[in-house]
Amino acid sequence: MLRNIFSNSYAKVREINDKYRTPGIEMSGGVKLALFALRLYLICLIGLSFYKFVTLLK
Question: How far is the first Cα of the chain from the last one, in angstroms, to the nearest whole number?
Fold first, then answer.
């Protein structure tokens, strides 16, 4: 019974993942560049936050 519920849920998740595997819109080079810059900015913010946390522990 419980195994059947999880199996059905897993199948639904796989179906949704297969449906949205490829993006439905096409991005220009500028958009890709902006998203990459935002990703780098986020990584820098996380790194700075981690550094601040570590220095506060000392």
Answer: 52
